[in-house]
């Protein structure tokens, strides 16, 4: 049940007027004036084009923008030819924008979006990132349709990624979540997603106050769905282009946030994943277009040098986290030219760090910071090997990595239980 | 009846009757004028003040009488001319005006005019129709009856030429480029107006004149014909009314009113379609959209609004998506679909849901225009889509649960159209006699509705101002005429709704609900809060005391 204390009287008045909706598109914002209009237009066009009969609302939870974002959301319009017989949604697509109070961040915004969706009995809910510039009306269809057709409770995105793009996802989060939760979800850090009313109600029943939520709500929702029997699905969206409204945080901060979220979720869902068997495929809806590189190529040489230097410098700390064979492997890899950080070694490394995090052998922040140079080494190794490979080769390489994580999991699970 | 207010049609509540299936007085299975005359008390009690009769002319009945073979008499099966004039006098004596059909555009191919025309190219009647050696003139002009016709030209094997027809091929179009045709039609109008007919519902108006390279619809020359007939009517029979059938969007119908010198009235087709759309979507958007797009008319003109009539529910003026939606919602059985429309009556369209039937009638009676009630819809009659063409919505009136539903003493097999006899809508379940005995029947509710509608001129002559409450399921508007104002609030949805109305411009007024005379709190500067049950509607007379 929704926590109604989230909802101001003014918002409630708007919701009373709105009534039940079939589809709710939620957009959490904070100073996204440069991009949010196109996101709203795409959402409105998608609703009109693919769900013309649906009762729909675009709901914007704003975290206190001072650049006019809420006004832009409210006033954004799609083209209207103005004739009686012009094609348009059959029902009025409504728009609500409201400030939310509480902890800033996506977690609080999503909680409000879910609460509103629950109160409006929305059958399908879509969350869109206001910074995404590549969103199209087709995204709405892709994320909503599996939910409305009863095929999925949570529709995660599938993005077109080149080998060099999103290594934090491809090298770490994806294989780890796959192995732990037993589902081959490609994008557990869902930038966009669709979900069912049943899943929304479940999430609202859970505590949103844990440390997981503020920065890791996307991963938490993935984990909640996978660990609690909700049917997952994946929708092919295409490339994901971002235009950050603010300067994005540096890698150390992002790495810290993601690792905290991953580890916290695994702590939270340990009862599920420790006994979960091999990973199952997740149904995919649609076909992904080919990937193009979205960003500048990372400086692999520098990453490899950093890896070698830090492994040497951090050897005493690594010795408290890693088993002797793994530490030996990492040390050997750091000394090898060209750098090769094998899949199995990387899987063992990650799981052993996870155990260290769980056991709290040192401060958790320290644990995750220590993993960062190893992550750079592994990423450099992968890029050296596959940075110029074709999509099929990259796909096979990432699939091998996923299998390596799956193979490493039973031992890690056993040790977790002992701890 | 011609004396009195020349704008009488603006206050009309019209009842549309198919004489053939209304009441049979002589037991031959076909309704007639004597039968209709005997039911005038019923119509008077219903509260309507104008009767519109479907064609009763001699006809081969290949288009249920719209294929006329003689414009100057009554088909014998409906009675004699004396029966007609007797009916007319009796109706007038009750204050009921009578509107008859005027099919200008075409005749039956059995009409003597066409027979003369086809039998000799030298006949003076030859040029009363539109002929061609080829079938490639007026290329691209749309075909209206898509389900039956493949061309607007038909080959006449007698005179070895093609003739033009916008409707069925057995209905050749008259040639209005020939002044003799126009004069003949004026003679037809004089004949019936001279008998006392109060108005003409003019069929298929846009198609009178053809011009190469156009849609052949609404040509300037067509308007000339109309202006001529209107001027003649005004000069010789002041106070008579012309009602146009032009199945088009309101912007395109507007020219048929001219500067108040063409038609007095015209049907508002899209309003009808959008009422059905809005109530299924539970969204006022389609209705507010069409109301806003409806042009202002000259002071002497009026829209004719309706829910259902003798034709299919037209879906010509909607988008493909809207049409699919309407088919899915109202005609999931494809047999109910005809041309670009749906051949169903009001009650089956609304699943027999009394609340929705009431709401739709409430909208009909409170939106701008003169409302038309199709015979039988006041008791919730059903239809028979298996009768072919549009005959399924023209079945006999259900007067009682007895023999042939009280319509006729003939053998059931002899009836013009079979009675509806299924357990839901059949005459045993749905009939006038039973509903007259039940205070809360649909019939008695309709009587109250019409009485309240006619208790004020605000609905018939007032302006409309749409309100814009945040709740999209609620349609609200204020009707204003002189010093009188009525607030109308409709819940288009099947669930209870709360709504806040910005009535600050009406601050100080006391709403009085018009059906029960219940007082509501005085309107202030704050939003006015109302709750409405499923498909409920309120009419509030706004009093300033």
Q: Could you characterize the architecture of this molecule?
A:
The complex is a heterodimer of chains A (419) and B (545). In chain A, helix 9 crosses helix 15 and helix 14 packs antiparallel against helix 15. Chain A has an 8-stranded mixed β-sheet, with helices on both faces. With 419 residues, chain A is an alpha/beta fold. Chain A has 2 domains: 275 residues, Spore Coat Polysaccharide Biosynthesis Protein SpsA, Chain A (Alpha-Beta Complex), CATH 3.90.550.10; 119 residues, no CATH class. In chain A, 53% of the residues lie in helices and 11% in strands. In chain A, helix 3 links the parallel strand 2 and strand 3. About 2% of the residues of chain A have low confidence. Chain A is built from 16 helices and 8 strands. Chain A starts with 8 loop residues before the first helix and ends with a helix. Chain B has 545 residues and is of the alpha/beta class. Chain B folds into 3 domains: 371 residues, TIM Barrel (Alpha-Beta Barrel), CATH 3.20.20.80; 53 residues, Oligo-1,6-glucosidase, Domain 2 (Oligo-1,6-glucosidase, domain 2, Alpha-Beta Complex), CATH 3.90.400; 82 residues, Immunoglobulin-like (Sandwich). Chain B is 26% helix and 17% strand. In chain B, the strands form 5 sheets. Chain B has an 8-stranded parallel β-barrel with strand order 1-2-3-7-8-9-10-14. In chain B, a hairpin with a 2-residue loop joins strand 12 and strand 13. In chain B, helix 8 runs antiparallel to helix 9. Chain B is globular, with a radius of gyration of 23 Å. The two termini of chain B are 38 Å apart. The mean pLDDT of chain B is 96. Classes of the chains: A alpha/beta (419), B alpha/beta (545).
């Amino acid at each position: 049940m929704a926590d109604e204390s989230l909802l101001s009287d003014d918002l409630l008045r708007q919701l009373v007027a709105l009534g039940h909706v079939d589809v709710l598109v939620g957009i959490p914002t904070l100073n996204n004036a440069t991009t949010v209009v196109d996101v709203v237009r795409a959402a409105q066009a998608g609703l009109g084009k693919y769900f013309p009969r649906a009762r729909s609302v675009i709901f914007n939870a704003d975290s206190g923008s001072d650049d006019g974002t809420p006004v832009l959301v409210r006033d954004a319009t799609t083209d209207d030819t103005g004739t009686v017989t012009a094609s348009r949604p059959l029902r009025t697509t409504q728009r609500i924008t409201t400030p939310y109070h509480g902890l800033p961040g996506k977690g609080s915004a999503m909680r409000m979006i879910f609460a509103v969706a629950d109160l409006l009995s929305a059958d399908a809910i879509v969350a869109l990132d206001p910074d995404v510039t590549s969103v199209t009306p087709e995204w709405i269809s892709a994320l909503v349709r599996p939910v409305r057709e009863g095929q999925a409770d949570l529709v995660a995105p599938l993005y077109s990624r080149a080998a060099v793009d999103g290594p934090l996802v491809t090298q770490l989060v994806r294989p780890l979540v796959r192995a732990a939760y037993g589902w081959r979800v490609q994008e557990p850090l869902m930038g966009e997603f669709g979900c069912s009313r049943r899943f929304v109600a479940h999430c609202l029943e859970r505590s949103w106050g844990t440390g997981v939520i503020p920065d890791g709500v996307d991963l938490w929702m993935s984990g909640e769905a996978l660990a609690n029997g909700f049917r997952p699905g994946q929708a092919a969206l295409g490339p994901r282009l971002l235009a950050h409204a603010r300067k994005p945080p540096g890698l150390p901060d992002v790495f810290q946030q993601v690792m905290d979220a991953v580890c916290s979720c695994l702590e939270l869902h340990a009862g599920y994943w420790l006994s979960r068997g091999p990973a199952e495929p997740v149904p995919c809806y649609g076909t992904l277009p080919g990937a193009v590189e979205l960003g500048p190529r990372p400086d692999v040489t520098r990453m490899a040098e950093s890896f070698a230097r830090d492994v040497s410098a951090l050897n005493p700390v690594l010795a408290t986290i890693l088993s002797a064979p793994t530490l030996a492997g990492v040390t050997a890899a750091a000394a090898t030219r060209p750098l090769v950080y094998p899949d199995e070694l990387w899987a063992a490394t990650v799981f052993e760090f996870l155990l260290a995090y769980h056991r709290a052998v040192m401060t958790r922040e320290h644990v995750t910071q220590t993993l960062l140079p190893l992550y750079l080494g592994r990423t450099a190794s992968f890029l050296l090997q596959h940075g110029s490979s074709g999509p099929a080769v990259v796909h096979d390489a990432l699939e091998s990595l996923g299998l390596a994580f799956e193979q490493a999991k039973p031992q890690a699970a056993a040790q977790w239980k002992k701890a | 009846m011609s004396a009195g207010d020349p704008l009488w049609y603006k206050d009309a509540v019209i009842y549309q009757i198919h004489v053939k299936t209304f009441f049979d007085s002589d037991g031959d299975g076909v309704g007639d004028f004597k039968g209709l005359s005997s039911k005038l008390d019923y119509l008077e009690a219903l509260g309507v003040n104008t009767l519109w009769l479907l064609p009763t002319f001699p006809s081969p009945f290949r288009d249920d009488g719209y294929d006329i073979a003689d414009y100057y008499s009554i088909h014998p099966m409906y009675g004699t001319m004396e029966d007609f004039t007797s009916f007319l006098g009796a109706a007038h004596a009750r204050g009921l005006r009578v509107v008859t059909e005027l099919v200008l555009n075409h005749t039956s191919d059995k009409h003597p005019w066409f027979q003369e025309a086809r039998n000799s190219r030298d006949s003076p009647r030859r040029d009363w129709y539109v002929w061609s050696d080829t079938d490639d003139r007026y290329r691209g002009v749309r075909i209206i009856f898509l389900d039956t016709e493949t061309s607007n030209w038909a080959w006449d094997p007698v005179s070895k030429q093609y003739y033009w027809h916008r409707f069925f091929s057995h209905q050749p179009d008259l040639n209005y480029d020939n002044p003799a045709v126009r004069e003949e039609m004026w003679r037809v109008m004089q004949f019936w107006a001279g008998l006392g007919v109060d108005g003409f519902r003019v069929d298929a108006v846009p198609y009178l004149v053809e011009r190469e390279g156009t849609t052949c619809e609404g040509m300037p020359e067509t308007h000339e014909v109309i202006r001529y007939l209107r001027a003649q009517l005004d000069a010789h029979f002041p106070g008579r009314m012309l009602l146009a059938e032009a199945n088009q969007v309101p912007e395109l119908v507007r020219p048929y009113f001219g500067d108040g010198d063409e038609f007095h009235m015209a049907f508002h087709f899209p309003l009808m379609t959008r009422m059905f759309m809005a109530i299924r979507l539970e969204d006022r958007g389609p209705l507010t959209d069409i109301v806003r797009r409806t042009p202002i008319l000259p002071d002497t003109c009026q829209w004719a609004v309706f829910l259902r009539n003798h034709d299919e529910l037209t879906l010509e003026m909607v988008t493909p998506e809207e049409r699919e939606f309407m088919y899915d919602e109202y005609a999931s059985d494809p047999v109910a679909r005809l041309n670009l429309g749906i051949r169903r009556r009001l009650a089956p369209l609304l699943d027999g849901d009394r609340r929705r039937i009431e709401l739709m009638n409430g909208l009909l009676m409170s939106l701008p225009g003169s409302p038309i009630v199709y015979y039988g819809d006041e008791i919730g009659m059903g239809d028979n889509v298996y009768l072919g063409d549009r005959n399924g919505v023209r079945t006999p009136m259900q007067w009682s649960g007895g023999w042939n539903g009280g319509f006729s003493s003939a053998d059931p097999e002899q009836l013009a159209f079979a009675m509806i006899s299924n357990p839901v809508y059949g005459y045993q379940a749905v009939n006038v006699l039973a509903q007259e005995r039940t205070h809360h029947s649909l019939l008695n509710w309709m009587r109250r509705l019409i009485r309240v509608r006619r208790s004020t001129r605000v609905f018939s002559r007032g302006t409309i101002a749409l309100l814009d409450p945040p709740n999209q399921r609620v349609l609200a508007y204020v009707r204003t005429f002189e010093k009188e104002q009525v607030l109308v609030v409709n819940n288009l949805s099947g669930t209870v709704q709360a709504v806040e109305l910005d009535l600050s411009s009406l601050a100080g007024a006391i709403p009085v609900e018009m059906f029960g005379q219940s007082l509501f709190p005085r309107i202030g500067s704050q939003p006015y809060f109302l709750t409405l049950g499923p498909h409920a509607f309120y009419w509030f007379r706004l009093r300033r005391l």
